[in-house]
Design a protein that fits this description.
Layout: E1 4-9, E2 36-38, E3 46-52, H1 55-62, E4 70-77, H2 82-90, E5 93-94, E6 97-98, E7 103-107, E8 128-135, H3 142-149, E9 154-162, E10 165-166, E11 175-178
Length: 181
């Protein structure tokens, strides 16, 4: 039976077991042998990372051909208007082409949100807001580029869900076994 691990990756941790430069590796958190990351998160992004010992499951989760939805909580500088949300819902033009339509909505600060270390930069004159964004692609730094294209720089990015798997009840730096679906 395939092993599947849900891990709440903190800021400053790479999506690989070995550390590199200033960034920590997964080995500091997960001591399970023979599991591999299914999809990646940048070191400056947080949230749900899935690991498995099953190559087919890994491909089903990570390969864009399977279009598994990924939901993000995005703290942005500024407050998006309805036109910005509609742009996300219809696809945003990036340098490497338009994105697929996303589900996008304004949300309150996520419940049970952990502190980020180091904290985000705060500018007193600029309000921040949270978006929930669900995409089916996985281009390099896509969510950050989408928000930037709308004049809403990303301050904090947290992946909350991948398909049916979620962060629910999982503290930063902790992991749990999940049932592959």
């Amino acid at each position: 039976m395939a092993r599947l691990i849900c891990f709440n990756k903190p800021y400053g941790v790479l999506s690989q077991f070995t550390p590199e430069g200033q960034w920590r590796g997964l080995k500091d958190f997960i001591g399970v042998p023979n599991v591999y990351v299914a999809g990646r998160l940048d070191a400056d992004s947080e949230g749900l990372l899935l690991l498995t010992d099953d190559g087919q499951l890994q491909a089903r989760i990570a390969d864009p051909r399977f279009k598994m939805e990924k939901t993000y909580w995005v703290q942005v500088e500024g407050v998006p208007d309805e036109a910005a949300l509609d742009a996300l819902r219809h696809g945003v033009q990036l340098k490497d082409g338009p994105t697929l339509p996303a589900r996008a909505r304004l949300i309150d600060t996520p419940k049970d949100l952990w502190e980020r270390l180091p904290p985000i930069r705060v500018r007193q004159a600029k309000p921040t807001s949270w978006l929930e964004l669900t995409i089916r692609e996985g281009r390099n730094r896509q969510v950050r580029r989408m928000s930037a294209a709308l004049g809403l720089p990303t301050l904090r990015l947290i992946r909350a869900a991948i398909g049916p798997y979620t962060l629910d009840g999982l503290a930063a730096g902790c992991w749990r076994d999940a049932v592959a679906r």
